[in-house]
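Minutes, project check-in

Agenda point 3 was the complex the collaborators sent over. CS summarized: two entities, 816 residues total, and the question is how they sit relative to each other. Sequences were read into the notes so everyone works from the same version.
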Amino acid sequence: MLSRVADSLYWMSRYLERAEHTARLIDVDLQLRLDQSPEAGAGRWRRLLLALQAPVPEDGKIDGNSLSQILTLDRTNPSSILSCVAAARENLRQVREQCSTEMWEQLNRLYLQVTSTAASEAWLLNSHVFFRAVQEGAHLFQGVTDSTMSHGEGWQYIQLGRFVERTDALARLIGAHFGSLVHPLDLAAESEEYLEWVGLLKSCSAFEAYCKAYTAELRPLRVAEFLLLNPEFPHSVRFSVDMVHAALTAIGEMTERKAEQPVRLAGRLRATLSFSQIDEVMASGASGYVDSVRWQCAQAHTAIQQVYFDYAVEPALA
Amino acid sequence: MNPPEAPLTLFRPPFRNYQFGGAYDEMFAAPGTPRPHYQALFQNLLELPPEELRKSQQAADLSFLHQGITFTVYGNDEGTERVFPNDLLPRIIPHDEWRKIENGLTQRIAALNLFLEDIYHNGRILADGIVPRELVYSCRHFRREMRGLTVPRGIYVSICGTDLVRLPDGSFAVLEDNLRVPSGVSYMLANRKVLKKVFPTLFRDYGVCPVDHYAQALLATLRALAPANTSTRHEPKVVLLTPGVFNSAYFEHTFLAQQMGVELVEGRDLLVHDNIVYMRTTAGLRRVDVIYRRVDDDFLDPLCFRRDSSLGVPGLFNAYRAGNVVLANAIGTGVADDKALYAYVPKIIRYYLGEEPILANVETYLLNEPSQRSYVLEHLDELVVKAVGESGGYGMLIGPHSTEEEREEFRRRIEAEPRNYIAQPTLSLSRAPCFLEGEVQARHVDLRPYILYGENVTLVPGGLTRVALRRGSLVVNSSQGGGSKDTWVLRAAVNGHD
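CS then shared the predicted structure for the full assembly.
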């Protein structure tokens, strides 16, 4: 596979995952706001911005509507949903012959939908519908991809991009929450606090899955364990890293570069997560732990770039 | 010469505003009397409620938009994507007319290839005074670098899309040979896909020749050109070289690469080491044997042609000279589709093949000949003037539709550089029925069949019928408000006619 093509598939997938993640976070946040007094919700904008790595306005004044607009449909913000969907489409457009027609049509449809929303003024009144549509569009794309594209090297880069992005985004979200909330870790959360934890779980589509595993009694320690270390839930950090490792192993075999840097880095991170104990993690500080996850993930990303996408020519000729 | 105004009252709604006269009509032999091969479609249109057609048109438009079948318009907010308008009504070509087109184009591509081989080697045709030497050497697309270089099978032009027009007497004539990087074939295939959905029964009853095997034929053609030393190593590795996503025909490049199952590469994916071309893959560097390039000569190799090109591959020309890689089409084929040289093609056919041309040329005035030039300058308001090196409908003056200033402008340009321009009579292109504004209207059309030349010459029966969608317009280019429609070549004669 051409390096440029692999690079485009990887980034297409990262951008789409980012768009979906942003849509889910804002959607959950707006829903939550309905149940809360305005004061209680004020601190959450800051956390949301932190989780999305968006700049907090300097004067500290945050206006919900204009913020939604910036995070959602602002073309000048490179991480807005609109910009991410457009970037995903542009990347896929550059490698159209590599994906199935169905995939292209699905992503193109999502793009047209998002741009037509951007053109209308009234979308904010009915923003839930829009955020659902983005999430569903991304899910549909994923399903179409899995069932119409050969699960060969190209598909593996799509997997890789999705889960590298997800690992980083989840780690950031968890870090933002545990960094700002002060609550006894092993006690059940109540009322206002309770809503915040529900919000975190829903932001990872994890509320129902958590309840199945631990019942609806929310304890921060369990929430952390579930989102960081659960091996089966697709929006947990561990699951995402497992998928990154699996994709890299498969790519390593297909390209006959088994033992190279990316697989080893992903393998190390995977081992860390497999053997971590949640009480030890929390005792030494959740934010330090997620920072280390993010750092290792970024290293794996750099190694992927250097080994597969942008390698030096002279050694390759030898 | 216009026939009397048609008895329009005879017509039921879809044809109420159909325009007759002044040009050959593809559908009607006389107002109200369809030609035999259009009878079934005519009947169908009378019976179908316009609402049905309108729905089909909307479905077709949407399907093009969703598939992203778009092209890029230059000079308009750097690369705006637009859907290439598709017209719903097929253009139908009877079997025997197609046979003549096929034979004529086969003859033409054979002669033009012999011509190219000759002028890049011994130049017999120049020594014999059939084609003026200075015309060849002054052509912008003549490549000195190609002198003495032997290309596989002696084939310079292996992919070609010739523009044909139908003259008022019903005969086809060649308007332009596109021998460099002709485009549009993907629209031929996309239009067919849509029409098969819209008119399934009609399509089946008509007995239309299939075109879907074009990509396969293209791949076979490219493989037939592979360098001699490939077979000992592996299957020839074919790639399609595109200028990238901002090129107006990018959709087509991806489409063809996908249909052929070959890699779509950009210049930055390729590199040359020791006169061997490699592509950069995730598993390391891989050797390339045949490049179907959709990049113009000028941009192929910054070491050899334009130095500012970032689309090309440094060192590609040396690898080509060394015979380690094949380019299709070869470099320097543009000299044979120079619009001034076009006037000599009938002579070229007679010279190399000893045959009379099967398809006529359009009468052409060469402006570096003083007598022809003064005639043209006096009749600028009747003629079409074209710049010899341009294509796509750019750099053109259509006399009858021009203003005094435009004519003055062209007069100045012609006097400054007569070699750069030719003139032709304003052709009345034939008209075909189109579904516009909820009814059937007549619009001017041309025809671009696609010719492949590898082991032998292959024409996929069909082509791109381009339509001048603006009423009265004669310009069919997509960049100038043109659209396209599906072209049905019939497998056999209709109703004992023909």
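Noted in discussion: Chain A touches chain B at residues 1-6, 90, 93-98, 101, 104-105, 108-109, 112, 153, 251, 254-257, 308-309, 311, 313, 316-317 (CB under 8 Å).
Follow-up: revisit at the next meeting once the mutant set is ready.
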